[in-house]
Recover the amino acids of this structure.
């Protein structure tokens, strides 16, 4: 893995259009290996639309090799003392930090996100390994009182081989937030990153091997959802599937795993509201709304893609928000603008279609609304930061996840109306509330149908705070101590004495 600085790597990338040291195969049993069928696919830089690398495209046979490798790895790892698991996870956190420059540059080119966002994602990934390192030797059970003639207690044991199906918007940290608790629990893993962002999962798995994880405990198969993701989810030796992605694919995965009765975590989409009440700090709410929707070009499951605003402050808030939005810079992620491109041409088309349909319905598009290019290269898959004002709750732009830099604004006249608007979609991932009256904010937080609610700072939280949605946003939690539950099962042992 390259040890050059970010500046050196960026200079080299812009001069050659390539990055040094990218893995070329799947990572199975501690080694990079080619696909059995030799298939490969091009990786496109969304910031300029050019191919910068190739990766292996796996199929069911590659997946089967990876799962068998993980099953062997599990037999070693489940018997490894928890204190040693802690040491490996802590070494992994240190290695991520040591290679942060390289991982961040690769992530930025592969996904399109700005370098600053990629650096934040890599840093959060190190923190996830560190956090779960601290938990690996504290997985205690309970003793159960049954009277003098019995002794009864529960133990928490690892579930087995876990599958991690990962989307393209946060490839590094989605890998870390599933894999770190799984191996901390004593499981072995097979991960399948998204086809447009294959590289950082491979690099992270390699670092785990370097950190001292026995061969086979971590495996990564790259490739398409249908050819690699599906065989992974349905493999009979998979004990738990952690799927992060769209609702449509999540439902399909749920159906796929049903015959095997495989355990499942679904981290799906969202249409999360930021509620700005009439007594809030309007400037703070405008800053919060800007970051909530335009962070990672809106490609965040928990993006604040709806602004539910009290009529009394609507004009003031919109004026501030528009000013800030018009000042946003766009460009190739490595140039560190405010906002990078969308992840693929296909996705750009989807976002454009959503906004075109809103325009045809006569929606008030206050700014943006069109695809655009990287000012330096004239290429790339960019979409202008877009705000659509005064939408009704049943408008498709309010109801559907657009997963791009498009904010849908809903104006309300009371706290009751704000709550009804905020809860008025089929999602329930997160929500934000801005108010100077903590009682008012907490009453809303109590009644919001969301897995997380933040008050007066939209992204408040961290790896310590359990994350996961309600309704069509999925089920199960990642992050926090609850994030380990998916990878552990309880066994109770009772003895007559
Ligand atoms: P997607 O559903 O298209 O793909 C996600 C992953 O599933 C990819 O690795 C893909 O290859 C794989 N896949 C596709 N078909 C499959 C199949 N039949 N069987 C098994 N695997 C299959 O999602 P995406 O477009 O990559 O990601 C965007 C979506 O992810 C958005 O809806 C977003 O909200 C959601 N997301 C949710 C969270 C969360 O934590 N809740 C986090 C990030 C993204």
């Amino acid at each position: 893995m390259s040890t050059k600085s970010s500046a050196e790597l960026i200079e080299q990338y812009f001069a050659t259009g390539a990055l040094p040291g990218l893995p070329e195969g799947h990572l199975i049993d501690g080694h990079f290996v080619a696909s059995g069928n030799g298939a490969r696919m091009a990786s496109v830089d969304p910031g300029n639309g050019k191919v910068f690398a190739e990766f292996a495209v796996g199929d069911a046979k590659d997946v089967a090799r990876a799962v068998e490798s993980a099953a062997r790895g599990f037999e070693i790892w489940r018997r490894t003392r928890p204190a040693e698991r802690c040491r490996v996870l802590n070494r992994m956190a240190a290695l991520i930090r040591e290679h942060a420059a390289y991982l961040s540059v690769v992530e930025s080119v592969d996904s399109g996100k700005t370098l600053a966002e990629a650096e934040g994602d890599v840093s959060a990934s190190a923190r996830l390994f560190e956090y779960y390192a601290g938990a690996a030797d504290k997985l205690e059970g309970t003793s159960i009182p049954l009277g003098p003639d019995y002794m009864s207690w529960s133990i928490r044991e690892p579930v087995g081989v876990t599958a991690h199906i990962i989307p393209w918007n946060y490839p590094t940290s989605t890998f870390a937030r599933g894999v770190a608790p799984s191996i901390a629990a004593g499981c072995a893993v097979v991960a399948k990153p998204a086809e447009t962002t294959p590289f950082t999962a491979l690099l992270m798995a390699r670092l785990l091997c370097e950190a001292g994880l026995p061969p086979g405990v971590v495996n990564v198969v790259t490739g398409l959802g249908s050819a690699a993701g599906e065989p992974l989810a349905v493999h009979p030796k998979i004990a738990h599937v952690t799927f992060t992605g769209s609702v449509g694919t999540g439902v399909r995965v749920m159906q796929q795993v049903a015959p095997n009765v495989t355990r499942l975590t679904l981290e799906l989409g969202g249409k999360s509201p930021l509620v700005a009440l009439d007594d809030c700090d309007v400037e703070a709410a405008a800053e919060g709304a800007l970051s909530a929707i335009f962070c990672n070009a809106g490609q965040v499951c928990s993006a604040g893609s709806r602004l539910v605003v009290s009529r009394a402050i609507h004009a003031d808030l919109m004026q501030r928000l528009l000013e800030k939005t018009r000042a946003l810079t766009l460009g190739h992620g490595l140039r560190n603008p405010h906002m990078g491109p969308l992840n693929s041409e296909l996705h750009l088309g989807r976002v454009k279609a959503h906004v075109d349909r809103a325009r045809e319905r006569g929606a008030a598009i206050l700014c943006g609304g069109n695809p655009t290019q990287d000012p330096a290269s004239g290429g790339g898959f960019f979409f202008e930061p877009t705000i659509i004002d005064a939408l009704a709750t049943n408008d498709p732009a309010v109801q559907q996840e657009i997963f791009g830099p498009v904010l849908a604004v809903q104006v309300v006249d009371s706290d009751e109306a704000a709550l009804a608007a905020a809860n008025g979609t089929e999602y329930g991932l997160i929500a934000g509330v801005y108010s100077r009256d903590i009682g008012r904010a907490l009453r809303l937080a109590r009644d919001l149908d969301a897995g997380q609610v933040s008050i007066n700072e939209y992204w408040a939280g961290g790896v310590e705070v359990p994350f996961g949605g309600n309704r069509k946003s999925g089920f199960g939690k990642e992050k926090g101590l609850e994030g380990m539950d998916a990878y552990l099962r309880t066994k109770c042992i009772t003895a007559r004495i």
User: Anything to note?
Assistant: The chain has two domains: 6-268+475-492, 273-462.
